[in-house]
Amino acid sequence: MKYIMKAGTLYFNDIVSARIKGAFIGSEKKIYSASGSILMRTDIANLEVPPNETGNVRYRQYILFDGSGNTCAVANPDYAEWDDPTVVGWPLCRIPRVDHAKVVYDNNEYLLVMQNDQNYLLSDKFSKAVIQIFHRGLVGGWNIEVMNDFAPEIICGIFVFCKYIEQENEFLVV
């Protein structure tokens, strides 16, 4: 199935399937149905961090909650293999690059990979692509190809997880 995400709205065959809206401050995003009822929400949880690991992305979780507040999916971000600070050390002038997250949804494990700044791939444990997200270039928005049967609100949740990975790589201004 092929979807288009434009300005936080997920379309299937030019028909609205779901919408993503976020607060001005904070990481929480809410996912609404086409009719405007809230279906899910996402947020970033900071886990208990040892004092010498402050800033380590491995102590964060991206969480997708259903309308009742129950956890539906969890993503654990991680550093790019070539930029892992436990292997190559912490860079002095930048933050290490985050390029993937392990996603657990519906008792299945997936790997969400930021292939580059404009393309993402969610694959199953057999490395089979289940969702591909491509930036549409100058026309704006995103093409989303879904190979499995995911509800529109789950697709939106995965899209938000992609945006969270992007945020991990933004330059910090002090």
Explain the layout of strands and helices.
Blueprint lengths: L1 E5 L2 E4 L2 E8 L6 E5 L4 E9 L13 E7 L4 E9 L5 H4 L9 E8 L2 E9 L2 E6 L4 E7 L6 E5 L5 H17 L6
Antiparallel strand pairs: 1-2, 1-12, 2-3, 3-4, 4-5, 5-6, 6-7, 7-8, 8-9, 9-10, 10-11, 11-12
Outline the structure in words.
By secondary structure, this protein is mostly beta strands. Helices cover 12% and strands 47% of the residues. The protein contains two helices and twelve strands, in the order E-E-E-E-E-E-E-H-E-E-E-E-E-H.
Which structural traits does this protein have?
174 residues, mainly beta, 12% helix
Strand arrangement within the widest β-sheet reads 1-2-3-4-5-6-7-8-9-10-11-12
Q: State mean pLDDT (0 to 100 scale).
A: 91
| Main β sheet profile | 12 strands, antiparallel, barrel
Compute the number of strand runs.
Answer: 12
Question: What is the molecular shape?
Answer: globular
- State which percent range the strand residues make up: over 45%
Uncertain spans, ≥5 residues at pLDDT below 50? none
Helices, by number, come to 2
Order of secondary-structure elements: EEEEEEEHEEEEEH
Helix/strand structural class:
mainly beta
Radius of gyration: 16 Å
Distance between the termini: 43 Å
Helix residue percentage: 10-25%
The oligomeric status of these chains comes to single chain
Summarize the structure.
The chain has 174 residues and is mainly beta. It has helices at 85-88, 152-168, and strands spanning 2-6, 9-12, 15-22, 29-33, 38-46, 60-66, 71-79, 98-105, 108-116, 119-124, 129-135, 142-146.
